Amino acid sequence: MDKRLKWLNNLLCFEVAARNESYSKAAEELHISQAAVSQQMRQLEANLGISLFRRQGRKMLLTAPGRTLLASCKNGFSEIINGLNQVQEEPIEGSLTISSTQAFCALWLMPNLFAFFNLFPDINVNIQASNRIENLHDGNIDVAIRFSTSTTSLLDDTLVVEKFAEDGVIPACSPEFQSKMQLKTVKDLLNARLLSLACEEKANWENYFENDKIDLSNTVLNKTTVSSSDLALSAALAGQGVMLAGDFMIRQYLNSGQLVIPVAKPHPVRWKYHFVYLKNSPKQQRIAHFCDWLKKQMTANEVKLSSKELHYLVTQ
Question: What CATH number labels 168-270+304-315?
Fold first, then answer.
């Protein structure tokens, strides 16, 4: 046996540190101290006689030999996990933990989940709502439903990233608020209370107005910032302002007349919906059933808003 295989623990620690570009994040994932990660990396570099990392600000970036070793470690550990999954793949029956944004979980997933239980009573689905990008490698989450304007930004060698839907972003408010504020054009929205999502850099009100060639340099928007879209929805339903939301997420409220689209001008940003899960998850059977069900359920519920329907909603 090659004596270097005794370094397997160090190599595993190296793979995690290299993937995260951080000793502290590696320590979190491995449930050890940062000092222990640093010590293992010093031991590995000493045994190899080369430097694997170089520090740049807060990041630990790989050297050329480090990049070569990382590629080999990923392939090697992936093959080991594939072998383990072949002899230890979990049956369909069991648990599955799903993570997504608070808004998607509250507005769509939880109200529809009973349909999944009717089809697959032996699969127990747990929901973890979070507006953070959760780490799938710690084993606490099986499938993440993530939203991005770009699929490539989510890609990772260790993950399956599957785009399954795309959604436009539209302004919406209660019919009473539209009537009171006389909202008919994009410029009219400048005088309205705007419900804004915190830390949203793309589908925000500034980009919405700029896309309509409206100069905001001397304008202070009347914004109320909230941490989640479901909070903005509550305020919009109560007649407190105008929100920006995916049309799929609020379609039931548009169809019921509780919300209207005050201006027939969508946001230039479109959200892409993705499933994200570990390539080597032993729960592949459960994951496949859940993802297939969700895609079919969304398709069944989908009634696309045509330009004619948009005009109707705006003029009511």
Answer: 3.40.190.10
